[in-house]
């Protein structure tokens, strides 16, 4: 975003690398970091009109942005009286007024209650599906990220130590089927009959199955039809936080 001086390495943004090229490429970026830059004495619409004027664009999209961010109902209410979630959403709307191709958000769910987090997640997903924007999220709420992110870059001590896709992460964190039954020995016989070989008996009642992850219903049906008492069955995985700590050596402050 050009907020600090470069002291090493190189940046490529939309195919541009030189100083002038980067300045031009940054016009395609929208960003909302730390404290949103809003005018507290103005309402949502007035804030967006100011941002449109600053960006040298028209006001034709303001109504759509207010709808997209669930702010159409705020009317003349001043921003100083907005909730934290409303201010976060207005800050994002302000960045979208210039129709960016890349949106950078720093901790967009920070301080929000559970319903606000869900709402922000849905908004980010709509930005991708409805407007075709690439969204770069910086966050320490890793399990929340795992519900929307398609690619991950994991930072430790200021360096990227791993980059991977959602599918690669699923393999790394090893998703599996959790089966709980009072008849583990009989359940194992059924798994063998179904051709399932990659499983592990954890306890006398718990079995983890590491293959055929899309066949939960089929496995459950065969167990029940064979009179195996199934207490619980479903997919599970190692938490993203656990994977992060594993990569960083277990330092919770990394």
TrEMBL record:
Single GO molecular function: ATP binding
Pfam families: ABC_tran
Residue ranges annotated for the ABC transporter domain, each copy included: 1-182
Gene3D superfamilies assigned to the protein according to its UniProt record, in alphabetical order: P-loop containing nucleotide triphosphate hydrolases (3.40.50.300)
Record's keyword annotation contains Nucleus: no
Superkingdom to which the source organism belongs: Bacteria
Keyword line: ATP-binding, Nucleotide-binding, Transport
Family: Belongs to the ABC transporter superfamily.
UniProt name for this protein: ATP-binding cassette domain-containing protein
């Amino acid at each position: 975003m050009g907020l600090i001086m470069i002291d090493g390495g190189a940046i490529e943004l939309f195919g541009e690398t030189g100083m002038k090229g980067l300045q031009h490429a940054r016009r395609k970026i929208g960003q909302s970091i730390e404290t949103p830059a809003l005018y507290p004495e103005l309402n949502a619409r007035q804030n967006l009109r100011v941002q449109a004027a600053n960006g040298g664009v028209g006001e034709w999209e303001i109504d759509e942005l207010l709808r997209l961010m669930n702010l159409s109902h705020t009317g003349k209410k001043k921003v100083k009286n907005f909730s934290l979630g409303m201010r976060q959403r207005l800050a994002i709307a302000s960045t979208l007024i210039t129709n960016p191709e890349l949106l950078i958000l720093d901790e967009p769910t920070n301080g929000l209650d559970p319903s606000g987090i869900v709402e922000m997640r849905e908004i980010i997903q709509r930005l991708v599906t409805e407007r075709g924007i690439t969204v770069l999220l910086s966050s320490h709420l890793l399990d929340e990220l795992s519900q929307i992110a398609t690619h991950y870059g994991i930072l430790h001590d200021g360096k990227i130590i791993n980059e991977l896709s959602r599918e690669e992460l699923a393999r790394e964190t090893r998703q599996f089927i959790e089966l709980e039954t009072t008849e583990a020995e009989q359940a194992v016989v059924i798994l063998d009959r179904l051709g399932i070989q990659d499983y592990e008996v954890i306890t006398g009642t718990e079995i983890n199955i590491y293959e055929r992850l899309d066949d939960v219903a089929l496995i459950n049906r065969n167990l029940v039809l064979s009179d195996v008492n199934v207490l619980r069955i479903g997919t599970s995985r190692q938490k993203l936080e656990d994977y992060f700590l594993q990569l960083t050596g277990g330092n919770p402050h990394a």
